[in-house]
Amino acid sequence: ATRKLAIQKLDNMFIQVGHGKWQDYDFAVTEHSFLNNTNNAKRWIIQRAIERLAKPVDRERWGSMDPTQVDGSYARQVNGVFVPGGLLQEPFFSSSYPDARNYGSVGCVLAHEFTHGFDDVGRRYDMNGRMHNWWSSKDVITFKHRAKCLSDLYSQYEVDGKHVDGKLTLAENIADNGGVKLSYRSFLQQAKDKEEELTDSDKQLFFLSWGQTWCSVQRKRTARLALENDPHSPDKWRVNGPLSQYKEFADAFQCPDRTRMNPSVRCGNGDGPVW
Fold it and tell me: Which one in 33, 36, 210, 245 has a CA-CA gap of 20 to 30 Å to 147?
């Protein structure tokens, strides 16, 4: 029963790419009057919010997202994914890139957002964005067992001597792990549909692209602060965490058995910790 409802939720999930509906910002803006311009904009925003109270919910309204953001988001209350145009540019995406690179980067990010609909928070919302218990008791127990394995795994990771909070970051970790798996399977299916033979280098490029997506530099103070309040794991573990749990990665790079990136025991037995 849970699986059937989950498929219905996935079928009802929509995706908006690039930008939302055209918006006319019809409030007064004058030169040399920053304060008045700001107040006019705020009044306009509040008035529009009040007007929406008397209208049906617009599932495709972008809210705080704007086309220039280099990000994506999943909205639980409307069961929709929003992908700003800012994300669809190099180094995350290019029509000139090979499929492996696009699927390993922006493909994983999109699949990450889809998976949010079934993480430890998103799973509580049904196909229409209503919060209630639509899972069977047995499936809830199984989900929590698998999620605990992932939470415990990430809690072992450290940054500058401090541990990652596996509970705080659980939803994002579920989405990262599910995103890599879903996008990789889509990548393989794409090649099959095209009747293309994938090489080991193609598969390696997919995973390297995922790593490049989260390549970053942070000050130690910023990194330590993020451990306390950021629901995302540190970028290093957003890469190595999912890949260490995915057998296809170890196969692609021929990682020796019983090493950090090819452990003998994995959450979900190597086929994805939760999904």
Answer: 210
Cβ neighbours of residue 76 under 8 Å, at least 6 residues apart? 116, 117, 121, 122, 125, 129
- For residue 270, what pLDDT is reported? 76
Q: Residue 159 forms beta bridges with which residues?
A: 162
Q: CB atoms < 10 A from the CB of 115, how many?
A: 25
Whether residue 273 is preceded by a cis peptide bond, meaning omega within 30 degrees of 0, is no
The pLDDT value given to residue 26: 87
Question: How far from each other are the two terminal CA atoms of the chain, in whole angstroms?
Answer: 17
Q: Is pLDDT above 90 for 155?
A: yes
Pairing of strands 162-163, 158-159: antiparallel
Say if pTM beats, i.e. exceeds, 0.70: yes
CB contact at 8 A, 129 and 76: yes
Instruction: Tell me phi and psi for residue 6, to 5 degrees.
Output: -65, -40
Q: How far is CA 234 from CA 105, 119, 227, in A?
A: 17, 19, 8
41 Cα distance to chain centroid: 31
Per the residue annotation, which of 172, 176, 202, 235 is the catalytic one?
176
Active-site entry in 99, 113, 119, 172: 113
Check: CB of residue 99 under 8 Å from CB of residue 78: no
Other CB atoms within 10 Å distance of the CB of residue 98: 14
> Is 158 annotated as catalytic?
no
CA angle 208, 212, 217 (to 5 degrees): 140
Is residue 81 within 8 Å of residue 16, measured between CB atoms?
Answer: yes
Of 187, 172, 189, nearest in space to 113 by CA: 172
Determine whether 113 is an active site residue: yes
Q: What is the amino acid identity at position 42?
A: K
Q: Is the predicted pLDDT of residue 172 greater than 90, yes or no? A: yes
